[in-house]
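user: Here is a favour to ask of a fellow structure person. I have my own habits and do not want them to colour yours. Could you put it straight underneath, so I can go through it closely?

assistant:
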Amino acid sequence: MQRVSLQIQLVMKKYIVLILPLLYFLSCTTSIEEKKNLTITWDDFEVIKINSEKHYFDEIINPASIGFSDNFLIIGEAWRVPEEFPRMHLVDTNDMSYQMSKGKYGKGPLEITDASGILSLDDLSEFWVYNMNGRKLVKFSKVDSSLLGTDEWRLSEDMSMIRFIEKTKNGGFLASPWDGLAVIQEFDQEGKLLGSFGTWESFPERPDLGNKEIGELSTGWFKGNPEIGLFALATLYRDILKIFDYQKKEFITIEGPYKDLPLFDLHQTNGPSVFFRPESTYRYRDIAITSKYIFALYGGYSQAEINKTGKIAEDILVFDHKGNPLWNLKLDRSIIEMVFNEETGQFYGLTTDEDPGIAVFDIPKELLKK
């Protein structure tokens, strides 16, 4: 009888030894899965107020986009600026001095109609501009005085559906498509589609919405840091932030502070199907990724409110690379886009007042050391 009891104990120990690692693995797996989908509230962030100094330039009429390359700010004009004016301007951040104009308006070779995105190159004397309406990338030099670009590359047929584009470290491209069939698409140096990553979740309360409509509801800013292989899409009409690890091909999705859908109407057209109402609130207005943090510019104003007050965004939500909420930087003025200078600990934003310029914010050094 004692021998039987001893055998049972040995068998039980054997199974416990086998089961414990399995339970540990399952607990780790659950923990990993939970970290890939986060929900945030305003209370998750430590509020820190920061002040700025504004710089105004007569040459810049209505700034709408901003890039940063080798201590130079590259300011893009809004599409409605008269055609006779240059599309871009370069400002030296060392002394905040105006350097030169770039970008002759036009649809011909080496000309652009807009500067929807600025892509840095390994050669710091040059930069690419994404001309969204012209469906091309145009290269410009910082060392010549010509308004024209030095080279251009038209988007391939595979890239006909993209909205925003970023370069990868290997020379290819990542882009956010507008048709809603994927969150991010990857292309090689020739523009050939290599793969699609992520899908937008459907809305149980709106089964009438297809991929196209969901994609339009989820449009936003797509930017990244090719050096560390981290990219992010921050949606304009929903509180969704998707962080994409290029090496692992994995997403971290952050929802909040709010989860409600924007106010919109549906109309079937050859172009957009979703038409947002003036009282619908804009959410994320820009995104920037540094070697340690993710900075997400948050709006919270409707178009009707913007028309009355001129305010677009006064909060920057800061996350670590895992999507954990850290700080809410409360700005002393409204901005529309931003870039960050890691060497100086400053970031630059385009102001939205009557005389728009460039606001320079100093982030407390003790934060950046954490």
Residues 2-35 form the longest helix (34 residues). Residues 1-34 have pLDDT under 50 and may be disordered. The first strand starts at residue 37 and ends at 39. Residues 229 and 246 are 5 Å apart (CA to CA).
